Structure formats: structure tokens, C-alpha cells
Amino acid sequence: MLSDRLDHASLDYVESRDPGQGRLAPRARYRSDAMSLDLNGDWRFRLADSLRALTPGFEAPDHDDSGWEHLPVPSSWQMRDIAGTPRFGTPAYTNLVYPFPVDPPRVPDANPTGEYRREFTLPEDWPDTGRGVLRFEGVDSAFAVYLNGVPLGDGKGSRLPTEFDATDALRPGRNVLAVRVHQWSAGSYLEDQDMWWLSGIFRPVALLHRPEDGVGDLFVHAEYDHLTGKGTLRVESDATGRVTVPELGLDLAVGERAEVPVEPWTAETPRLYDAELTTAGERVRLRIGFRTVTVSGGLLRVNGTPLLLRGVNRHEWDPDTGRTLTVGTMRQDIELMKRHNINAVRTSHYPPDGRFLDLCDELGLWVIDECDLETHGFYLNGWRNNPSADPAWRDALLDRMRRMVERDKNHASVIMWSLGNESGTGDNLRAMADWSHERDPGRPVHYEGDWDSGYVDVYSRMYADHAETDRIGRGTEDPTTDPELDEHRRSLPFILCEYGHAMGNGPGGLSEYQRLFEQHPRLQGGFIWEWIDHGVRRRTADGREFFAYGGDFGEVVHDGNFVADGLVFPDRVPSPGLTEFKKVVEPVAIRVDAAARTVSVRNGLDFADTGHLRFHWQVEDEGVPGGQGELTVPAVAAGDSIVVGWPRELSEAADAGPAGAERWLTVAARLAKDEPWAPAGHEVAWAQERLAPGAPVAAAAAPGTAGPAELRVDGGRITLGDGVFDAGTGRLVRLGTVPVEGPRLDVWRAPTDNDSRGRHGSEAEKWRAAGLDRLEHKVLSVEPGEGTLTVTTRVAAAGSDAALSAVYRWSAAPATASEGGAGGALRLTLEVRPLGAWDVTLPRVGLRAAVPAALSSVSWFGAGPHEAYPDTRAAARVGRFASDVDGLQTPYLFPQENGSRADVRWVGLAPAGGGEGLRLSGPSPFSFAARPWSSERLDAAAHPTELVRDGLVHLTVDAAQQGIGSASCGPGVLPEYRLLPAPTVLTVDWAVWGATAGTE
Ligand code: IPT
Description:
Blueprint lengths: L19 E2 L9 E2 L3 E3 L2 E8 L20 E5 L18 E3 L18 E10 L8 E6 L2 E2 L1 E6 L2 E7 L5 E4 L7 E10 L12 E3 L2 E2 L3 E6 L7 E8 L4 E8 L3 E5 L4 E4 L3 E5 L11 E7 L3 E6 L4 E4 L2 E4 L2 E2 L2 E5 L13 H13 L4 E3 L7 H10 L2 E5 L23 H15 L5 E5 L8 H13 L5 E2 L12 E4 L3 H9 L11 H5 L3 E6 L10 H10 L3 E6 L7 E4 L5 E4 L27 H9 L3 E6 L4 E6 L9 E9 L2 E8 L9 E5 L2 H8 L7 E9 L11 E10 L18 E4 L2 E4 L2 E4 L5 E4 L2 E2 L1 E6 L6 H4 L6 H7 L5 E10 L4 E9 L5 E10 L13 E10 L8 E9 L4 E8 L12 E8 L16 E10 L6 E15 L3 H6 L11 E10 L22 E10 L7
Parallel strand pairs: 27-28, 27-34, 28-29, 29-30, 30-31, 32-33, 33-34
Antiparallel strand pairs: 1-11, 2-23, 3-16, 4-5, 4-7, 6-14, 7-13, 8-12, 8-16, 9-15, 10-11, 10-13, 17-18, 18-21, 19-20, 19-22, 22-23, 24-25, 25-26, 35-36, 37-38, 38-41, 39-40, 39-42, 42-43, 44-45, 45-46, 46-47, 47-48, 49-54, 50-51, 51-52, 52-53, 53-60, 54-59, 55-56, 55-57, 57-58, 58-59, 58-60
Helix pairs in contact: 1-2, 3-4, 5-7
The structure holds 1-methylethyl 1-thio-beta-D-galactopyranoside.
């Protein structure tokens, strides 16, 4: 239905590699006193399903759009009404595969195209001199702009600004702006990032007045010489004017250079100076940070000091609005990052909304600003016709680099430019690097995809395992493919631009990476993949909220929940992975020496001393607070250490307290005063040391202390102490008044994403092949004895002659197990022995049991408060914690093993309203989990809303767990955390927990 008025040729830009026609030259983004008109808000909108279905004359000022829909700008049209019934198409998720045939630069005929219209009134005081510029901060993926029916031009490069000169089309009074936005364009081939495909005018739009004699572009050069303590300032511009920095007493001509003593900008000390550039026609506000970035002596340095990057990869994401974020959300991200000891962001994989960088300057983060470029899907076609290597695409790639660098060059926080992500190799990348070096020699260039690293300033890799990272740290890595480049690359500092894949439960192995970073100067840290789960908030038919991932919108090709791999959930609730990362990268290392009665503090910051911190100590007896107080620690300079003696009060507290209680000292470093990103008192770092072990738990019930451990056999039942057993199966069926699905050996866990995926095959597949999810328990004997019950079983899977021998020895528990109960507690010692040939790891080795759902109130003494596994254990501290069963669940978007608490000495479960419950304890700590559903249900569900409660609390009590690793994209579980079948003994005491004992 192409109309006469719609010239077919005018749509050629859609499939053209040309980055755009009629655009103004890229320039810096700055705040000016020139007039502007915000064009965000409610626009008229119509979605055509192809170019053939466009509205003839949609751009005409008098076109009747009264029947059109409404759509807010900025937004992505697929996100409209997303929680209910999406109104305009749906989001679609793919990682690398293009969701259309790879035939560059052509795109499918089914090319949803949004037609946008809005009116605006030019303010009466809009100057009649100067020019009017329409500025689009981001439009996905290609668009054409008409003002009052006059075509202004077209553009591509979704996450980059585009400006058009609107002067000649602009009218006094009423104006009509019309924009056509195409979901697919040639530009889509350059935007194959691992994320939802979303379309529309998703970043702000404004009409800017550009005064005569105003500022065009400007480039602030603000360096810092750490040897002299002086900053040099020179502001380059195409305008004539003066630059003033009142605080420094500077008043310079554009282009003039001044050198003055300054406080430098660093991410730790984000010192900004307010400045102004004034021309005859305009005043521009600047915020200047003085710092110098170099790569010298093989290290990436700022102000002469090598950095240790504790970074994350950040996509822009909001579960309701997609990649359209408010400033509040941007600030929330940075505050959350700073509160979790994160000091760096890679803007994966495109330049963020410019306002995010303003906040990074202000609050302090090191930023790698990455260009809007990814051609990953060409990999699936042997990299044939990859735009990075095809001269026909050179202008398009250079255009993107230029637009990023020009927009963001005045941000102190941006310390490196990245050419893009996963775009293979090719001369166009080199051309981008060359251009960038020429235009901005003050910033190194990053690109990960070309391991020969010929034209970059840092050697960057993703997901290298610990062993390889160690070799790189030592400079003994494999040579480059091009021998000539080897020497260059060996001279470069190293960063892991992606590591620690935060998909689902995990990532494991972060502590081991951090140790390598701290050990080898060449390893300057890395960036966790990634900051946030890109889940889309939706509702089930019956109104329950959940977060959708790939495939949930019926996409034909998609990559499932691979889009949910962040340290925060889509609603920005921190996951246990973020808490773990915070601990692993804590910038201040505290060590308690209980024997010497000292505390040592090592300042791992690169610039700031510890003057912003105060130190606090706390003694706890079996998790119950004892003494506490301040620890005076003189300010420690960056990189230095200090040892201080315990204050008298601490020594006294350490020596006091109830005899026999397990006593711990916790020392924490907290903010001394409010910071812009966290209030005073916010904890930055901590350490714990055990001061006294608990009283040893009796090895067996001492005569006379064990209560009524008399054994009675009565028909089908065996009674031992408070326990009632089924005489046939030997399983506990009741403890006191609490019905119990008695404990039995269990090795299964609902596979985590890291269990299920992997470069070298999936661990979970091996587990399933070995039948670990369908073990059968054969009872060989049930032997009542003298106050004991011994149950011998053989546990094995259909088809296999490998087995686990499980022997359950029940006896009276020592009196300590009862803890407020009436005695009659039972001790279970489980002995597990592998029989036959085992060639798989085990997910876990322990017990499972179930009690009525009413026992929903849980408290424990052990590690917490959150989940912890052998290789994600750093952030869990020993203490006394309480939660209801629901609160123990971690709601990963794709249900999987979660919620296990480590190093538990005892755990009690009681009805919320009081009443008889259950207490588990043991001579050695164990892991435990309590869930309202079984592991099998957890395994079967694809979304949390599919998890079905069955009236029970399912308990697992483990002697051991396999580590978590990060195999969903990266190395698997390190050898020391792999759980191989081996003889194992687990001793757990089962006691009735009195109505009052549980409620402290
Ligand atoms: C790497 C990508 O750069 C990133 O965008 C994301 O997809 C990540 O993987 C996995 O979540 S590329 C991969 C082939 C290592």
C-alpha cells in the first residue's frame, strides 16, 4: 500500500549501511543556558507490520492521527502494557543468533515500523536568531524525521545520539514532528548484543536552541600530574569564549592552558570542579575532574597509580520499561554498586544514557565506555561477511565510534574506550582504534575480540579460567597467533572484561580470582558478567507476578533464561552473588589475631586512606551479642597496613561470657559519615575470628544423661526416646508430636544453571545419566538393639550396579541436643560408602526429611544470613539468624538449588504461633535447607510461579555439597570444590523443640 506521496526511494536508508543522512556532526553533550524544549511525553503512535503497510503522508502536518494510539516517549513499544497484554509486538530475546536471516544489509519484509507524531508549540520567547536542533538520545534501530512535513534526515546507531538541523522547518507557534522508526535495519547487524530486541524512541528527545556565537563542540583536557600535584586545564572548542573555574581562580581563553595545584579526581575521591564556558551567545556548565590515564610500565594507571578494577558489566534494564531508565534508577544502580564495593563499570555493550555518566563522575566509578557495536551472530556463520572486516561497513563503524567519543569525552569517569563487543576481527576495528587514539590520546582503547591485541592498549579476555588467568599474570601465557604481535601483547596490562557469570545460583570461585588479581600486578581486575537480570515483569493469568525470560513471549528462536545472569534481580534486589562479590572485593582487609590480641588492617584502596571509616568490634556467644565497642584505628594510607592492639574492653569481653559457649569476635569497618552513596554506619568490610570453641559435644550419650532411650518394638512401630519408627522401613515417622517423613540419604539437588550448562558438557547431564535423581532405596536390615536402631540400606539407580551403602545408626542423643526440650532426643549417625564404580561427582551428600508446613519459623546458629555453598562462602558470617521458610528461598528466575545455609551448628523449626517443633544439631557443622517444595518440584519448574507447595517443609541436611562454579559461561567447579563419592559420616541429633525454646 505504498502511496504516491510515500516515495519508495525515501525508505532506502533502512537497508543501507550508511549511518544516516542530514545529521549534524557529533559533539559533546553538555548543559547550557540556551533554551530547549522537552519533547518527551505522550506521542501519537501507530505500528505498521511492514514497510508496505505504512501510512501515506503520515508526516503531513494536517494528517489526521486522531484514531492513532498513544505511546510515551521515551519508551520501547514492545514494553507498552507489558505486565498485562502487550499492545505492540513483544520483546524477543536472543544471545548471539540474529532473529532474521543473515543477509547483510537486508532485513526481513516483516519489519515492524512505528509511526510517531506529536505537536509542540514553540515558546513565544524562542529566539528568532540562531538555529533549532532536534536531538534524539537514542532510537532503536533506524528512523527518519520530518518536521512540519519537511524531511530532516535519517539515522541509525540505537544507543547513540543523533541531531538534525530543524531551523528551516521550524515555525512560530504550532509545529508537527513526525518520526518513523523501524525495528530492523542494516544497523541491526551491528547491534547483536545479548539482550532483548526492543524498538522505538527509547531515550529522550528535545528541541535545542543553538544560539549564534554559541558553543558547538568542546573538549575539556584536564590532566593531573601526581609528581607535582598540579592539574593542567585546557578547553578546546570551535567557539571563542572564556573558561572560568572560580574555585581555582581560573579565567582562561578557550584553547589557553593553565597549570594550578588541584585535588585530583579518582573513583575513590571523585573531586569535581564547577566551571563555565562562556561565549557571546551561550553559557555552558562544566564539571571538571582532573586525572591522567596512562598505560605505562605494563600497567593501567590513573594519576600514576595502577588500578585494581572491581567491576561489573552493566546493561541498562528495568523490568517494566526495558532499556528506558529514569535518573533515579541510574542513581540506584550506582548507589547499589558503591555499597557493594564495586568501583568500575563496563557499559556493556553500548554507551549508556549520558546522564548515567554524569552520575559516575559525581559519585565515583571507573568507566569503560563501550561502543554500540556487536556482530556476534556472524560467528555462527563462520564469521563470513562480518562487518568488522568488510570495507563497505567502515564508515558505519567509524561513525559509531566517533559519536560515542564525541558525546562522552568530557567525563572524568570514562578512563577507557571500548570498540564494542564480540565483533570478531577486522580492519574496521583497527580503524576505530586509530581514530580514537588520534582524537583522544588521553584514553586507552579496549577491545576483547582480537586476542592478538595489535591495536589496543590492554589485553582483555572474557571467562579465562583461573589457571590461564594465573599464567597471564605471570606473563607465561600462550603466544599470539601473529608472532609479530606477541611482544606487544606481553607488554600490556590484563583485565577480565567479563568473568564470574552471575547466572542463577553463584557465581562460585570469585575468591580465587581475586587472590590472583591481588597476587599479580599485571592482572588489574575485572568485570562480573553481569549487573542485572533482564527479566520482564509479567503476571500469570491469576495475577501472580513473575519475571519473564527468553521464550516466554513465544519467540521462534531464543536463548531462554540466559538473559537472567545478573548480580541483582530485575527489581534490583541484590542476589546472594552480589553479597558474595562485595565481601570478596572488600577494599579493606581486616585480620584478627586472637592469640596476639591484635587487629590488622590493610588498605586495599588505590588512592584514599581509611579516614572515612571507623571500626567496630562485637563479641557474640553462640550468636548472642556480648560486649561491643569502637576500635581506634589511625588512618591507613592506600596500600598500607597497620596493626592495633585490642582495647581493654575487648579483651575483657573476650574473656568474659558464659562458659562453654562458642564465642566469636566480629570487627567491621563502617562509614564514619554520610557519603553521597550510603549513610554513615554502612558496613564496608568485616572479619570474624573464633575466640572460644563451644563445649565439645559428647561423642555418645553418657549414661544417665541421655533421657529415656529405651527401645520398644510394638507391632509395626519401633519407639526409641521421642522417636517413633516404621519397623519395616526403619524410617522415623514421628518425633514427639511432630509427624516426620524420616531422614534418608539424599544426593540430588535441582541443578543450578552452572550445573546444567558448560563448555565441557553439563555436570547435571552426567548426574542424570547416573540416575542420581532417581535413586532407589533398598532396605537390607532393620536391627533394633540395646537402646539403638540400625538400618542398613543400599541406594542405587535403575540399570546401574554402582551403589551407595547407607547405614543409619540411631541412639539416644547427648543431653545438650535437647536445649530446652525434655530429653528423649535421638542421635542419627549416617555412614555412606560408595560401592562399585563411580565416575561422576555428587551434587550433595546428606539427608532429606520433611515435616508439616506449619513448622515455618526457622532459627539457626551457623553461617548466614544468606545461602552459601563451598565456593560462595566468603560473605556468610557465623551468627544466630531467623527467618520463615519462605524467606529462606532465593527466587532465581529459573528455579534451581538455592537457599542452603552453611556451617550450621543447630537449627530449630517451630510453628510460627508457637508449639512443638524440631531441633537439629550435631558435633560437626552441616548445611541445611528448608523449602516448601521438594527438590524434584524445584527441578521441574521453569518459573517460581510454577512451584507448588505440598503442605510440607522439606529439609536437607548435608555433610557436603558440590561447589557452584561458573560453568554457565566460564570455568566449572574448581577441583577443591568438586564432590567425589567417598566414605562419609554425618551425625545429626534430632530433638523435640519446646514451644518456648524456639522463640528467642
Ligand atoms: C559473552 C558476551 O560478551 C556477553 O554479552 C554475554 O552474552 C556473555 O557472554 C554470556 O552471558 S560472549 C560468550 C561467547 C563468552
